[in-house]
Design goal:
Layout lengths: L2 E7 L2 E7 L2 H16 L7 E2 L4 E2 L5 E9 L7 E8 L4 E5 L5 E2 L8 H10 L6
Antiparallel strand pairs: 1-2, 1-5, 3-4, 5-6, 6-7, 7-8
Length: 120
């Protein structure tokens, strides 16, 4: 079974597949770095509340698999409106992955999901 990779950028949704977890993580990182380099989002003022760019999720890349129903691994990254990247695991309740010192968000996500890996 393959891993599914879903890239959400605003209203655009792209669905991809990867043969292994490492391939899925590589695709996630490639798309995540590209999305983080895009122009930043402006502050949103609703009158009652103001949303700073860091409070907005501008794009999301997520992986799931290898099963189609109740996938063992569900993880991804949120690209914030200021270009920062926040890794997470789990669904429906997302748990933020904390990066260790000197570790990129992608390395932190890789460490978190490979501790629950199903690859041989």
């Amino acid at each position: 079974m393959a891993f599914r990779v879903v890239v959400r950028n605003g209203a655009k949704v792209q669905r991809l597949t990867a043969a292994t977890l490492n391939d899925a993580l590589r695709v996630l990182e490639d798309h995540g770095r590209g999305l983080a380099a895009q122009p930043r989002r402006p502050e949103v003022d609703l009158g009652v509340r103001t949303y700073a760019p860091v409070d907005q999720v501008a794009a999301r890349v997520e992986i799931a698999g290898p099963q189609r129903w109740r996938a063992r691994i569900r993880a991804g990254i949120d690209v914030r409106g200021d270009g920062s990247v926040e890794p997470w695991t789990g669904a429906p309740e997302r748990v933020e992955v904390t990066a260790l010192e000197g570790e990129s968000p992608y390395d932190a996500l890789r460490r978190a999901v490979q501790s629950t890996s199903v690859d041989p």
